Amino acid sequence: MSGQSLPVIDVAGLGSGERLREIAAEIRAACTGPGFFYIRNHGVPEATIAAAVAAARRFFHLPPEVKVRTRANLAHRGWHAAGGAVMAGATKPDLKEFFSLGLDLPADHPVVLAGEKLRGPNQWPAEVPELQPAMEAYYAEMMRCGAGLMRAIAISLDLPEDFFAPHYTLPLQRTQAVFYPPQPPDDTEGFGVAPHTDFGCITLLWQDDSGGLEVRERQSGEWIPAPPLPGTLVINVGDLLGRWSNDRFASTPHRVVNRSGHERMSIATFHDPNFQAPIDPRALGAAAPIYPPTTAGGHILDCFAKAFAYRKGA
Ligand SMILES: O=C(O)CCC(=O)C(=O)O
Ligand SMILES: [Fe+2]
């Protein structure tokens, strides 16, 4: 294991002009370097996090025959049982289970009526009534925090500060509470989450104090720990921002092995743009695009089709 550790960026004052530029410079260094960084002073209330974690934990402890009543639908909302996710190149499914929500659009919203994929209302279990308000409050905080980060990221990519805002009017942001069972100490093959890159633009991750998240160092290829640091969130670049930025900011592989001896929880939020957002490296200044244009939704659907058993044949 190398002595490298990931940068911690203080994002207090992200809304003000001068601080925004300083933060953008730190984010540029992190995104062209390890592709992972921590943020502190993000403004997400501890109580909002604690309520979401407590409600999600109660849900995960329900018997499977109850959880399955909110089994994930084709809009990716609801409970994903363990065994349903296989990361690219992995030989076994992940050990994790997770509960996913997105932007809650009523069935009569124009984009739902138009048949846009991944859209629709969220699913909620009657048995844990506090899950909905707790996760919705957390989701809203991630939207606020993610939008601030995207302003800094725009500047760090030499774009106008509000470049991304018009592409986030009906975001595909997904928040997933994730539950990891303890792994047997002699298990050398199983992963909570096998090595992967995230599909979306940026990920905002809260993790409990178990540890287990590891990030692949770009130069050495070594796995370095991204340990829990109180009061922080872990931020990383996903494939969609890699693609959009023509790999100026490339996604970094990471994995989770829960060696803590007890259950682990995290909440991952993929702060992604509108389904129809055009993902064309030329729009971000690339003269020689590595990637053909696509849409955010098209890219996410391709990734989902490869990773998730529930979508096979969808
Ligand atoms: O739980 C974690 O620490 C990371 C989860 C993760 O990498 C993911 O859900 O994409
Ligand atoms: Fe990930």
TrEMBL record:
<dbReference type="InterPro" id="IPR050231">
    <property type="entry name" value="Iron_ascorbate_oxido_reductase"/>
</dbReference>
<dbReference type="Pfam" id="PF14226">
    <property type="entry name" value="DIOX_N"/>
</dbReference>
<keyword id="KW-0266">Ethylene biosynthesis</keyword>
<dbReference type="InterPro" id="IPR027443">
    <property type="entry name" value="IPNS-like_sf"/>
</dbReference>
<dbReference type="InterPro" id="IPR005123">
    <property type="entry name" value="Oxoglu/Fe-dep_dioxygenase_dom"/>
</dbReference>
<protein>
    <recommendedName>
        <fullName>2-oxoglutarate-dependent ethylene/succinate-forming enzyme</fullName>
        <ecNumber>1.13.12.19</ecNumber>
        <ecNumber>1.14.20.7</ecNumber>
    </recommendedName>
</protein>
<dbReference type="Pfam" id="PF03171">
    <property type="entry name" value="2OG-FeII_Oxy"/>
</dbReference>
<keyword id="KW-0479">Metal-binding</keyword>
<feature type="domain" description="Fe2OG dioxygenase">
    <location>
        <begin position="171"/>
        <end position="273"/>
    </location>
</feature>
<keyword id="KW-0408">Iron</keyword>
<dbReference type="InterPro" id="IPR044861">
    <property type="entry name" value="IPNS-like_FE2OG_OXY"/>
</dbReference>
<keyword id="KW-0560">Oxidoreductase</keyword>
<comment type="similarity">
    <text>Belongs to the iron/ascorbate-dependent oxidoreductase family.</text>
</comment>
<comment type="pathway">
    <text>Alkene biosynthesis; ethylene biosynthesis via 2-oxoglutarate.</text>
</comment>
<dbReference type="InterPro" id="IPR026992">
    <property type="entry name" value="DIOX_N"/>
</dbReference>
